[in-house]
Amino acid sequence: MQQSKVLLFLLIISLVFISCDSNRVFDTYKSVPNKWHKDSVVSFKVAPPDSINAYNLFVNLRNTNSYKYNNLFLIVEMNFPHGKTIKDTLEYRMADPSGKLLGTGLTSVKENKLWYKERVVFKEAGDYTVNIQHAMRENGKVNGVIELEGITDVGFRIEKPLNK
Q: Which Pfam families match (predicted)?
């Protein structure tokens, strides 16, 4: 009898955690080995859920305290199934004015959910590809940062808007 109560409790807790993220449609991370090289592109192949509803798109990042910049520049490219490509250069704030890293997490690893596009409708049938690479530069220097330290994982997320 006691074992069945424990199992029921664990089942309820699991359902609570799963239901907390019911607007998630696609959410995947890929690890960045040691340092993120400027020529390294992190790619995600996405099969859209439908061609009618609008979705919000995010770039997700995990970083450690060894990330030494206040901001982050990314080049995000979306390749459509029939050949069209949209390429954006995006800037995100990664630290507050005092230098404290933003993001969630109780350990030295912080998670950042960064807006990419809002209310996107996937009108074309077929797989989309999203490519993400960093475009960091240091102030006063022409050449970019070759190996970016502190980023451990790069992710891409699609979710249903909170209000339709």
A: GldH_lipo (PF14109)
* Torsion angles phi and psi, residue 142, rounded to 5: -80, -45
Angle made by CA atoms 131, 79, 41, in degrees to the nearest 5 = 15
Token pair belonging to 30:
């890929």
Per DSSP, the three-state class of 6 is helix
In the structure encoding, which two tokens stand for residue 98, read together? 């005092």
Q: What is the pTM of this model?
A: 0.83
Complete edge-to-edge strand list for the sheet that includes strand 151-159: 24-31, 151-159, 54-63, 110-121
Which helix (H) or strand (E) segment is 4 a member of? helix 2-19
Structural domains for the chain? 25-159 (2.60.120)
> 30 near 42, Cβ under 8 Å?
yes
